Structure formats: structure tokens, C-alpha cells
Amino acid sequence: MHNSYRQAKFLLSCPSLKGCPNDSGYEVIFAGRSNAGKSSAINTLTEQKKLAKVSRTPGRTQHLVFFELDNERRLVDLPGYGYAKVPDSVKRDWHQNMSQYFDNRKCIKAAILVMDCRHPLKPFDQMMLEWCINSKVSVNILLTKSDKLKKGAASSARLSVMKAVKDFPSVNVQLFSSLKKEGVPELCMYLDEVFEMNNES
Length: 201
What we know:
Elements: E1 9-14, E2 26-32, H1 38-46, E3 64-68, E4 73-77, H2 88-104, E5 108-116, H3 123-134, E6 138-144, H4 151-164, E7 171-175, H5 184-194
Parallel strand pairs: 2-4, 2-5, 5-6, 6-7
Antiparallel strand pairs: 1-3, 3-4
């Protein structure tokens, strides 16, 4: 299968909505708790080891980071959330910036909501999910670190999350392992559909 996401390249990083690229085209956001493996998932998807920086201090990165696929399509790495050691002032700024981003950004087409499969649907995850649903943004929940569980336990974790979100519209749930490169084809297929890759001649 051709991976269109190898061509992703860093576009810009900004602390607030003011510095974002023009509100046009297609944007897919990657969101998740600070230690859920979000940056690793982006690097695995794009087959680039250092595209998204993996912070040694969870919660340190508080910028929106944009990666360009082409002139119309972008991946967006949102600041990690839910890390206890982040100061309250940073948490308030994060909440305000994310609220504005979802309320005002019209080009958001979908969200990849990254959760550790051993600890899914924490309060911040649920808040992000509700933001997406309220903004009519489709969601692909990426249950990362699936290699940390036995196959049966990982499948049970996925089924449990599917049951929890069954009443939400446009929410998909999949397992993913950056270490084992598992779940990449499914993620690519989801993104291809969102970005309408298959509609081009």
C-alpha cells in the first residue's frame, strides 16, 4: 500500500490561533494526553523518526505544530494535555487556545484522538472527544501501545472503548503500536478518506 504520509514536512509552530496557516483546505488534528504516544504515532505514520519531537518532559510542548502534506492538506500536532506537573496557568492557556481552535477553525476535517490502550477515556480524553463531537469533527480513536497488552486483552480494550462511544456519531476505534508498526494501514485508510486522497485522478 502506498503511504502518502511519508511526504509530510514541518510547516510551522505557533502558540495560539493567531499564528495558524490560512483557514482553508483539510486539517487533521492529533490530540492526546502527554504520555499517550502521540508524537511517536505521527512519526510512525510518516515513517520519519524525528518529524514530531518526542519531549522528555511530558506536557512541555504547548504549541500547535503543523505538518504539510501538500498545499491543501495538513496534519496538526496539538499540545499534550492532562499532565499533572504542568502549571495551572499553562492548563488555562491550553484550554482557552483549544476552545478557540475548535470554535473558529473551519478547515478541521477529523481528529486522531490518541490514548494509551491501557488507560483510555480519561477525563481529558472525554473532554476532547466532546469538543470534536460538538464541532462535528469525525474522530478516529487510536489506542496506542497495544504491544504492551496480550492480543486478547488489547481486543477487549478496543471493544470496551467502542461500547463507551457507541452513541457518538462518526467515531472509529482502532489499535495501534508504534513499536510493532501495527495499525498503520488502517490509520492510512482512514486519513485517505478524510483527505479525499482517492478522489483525485
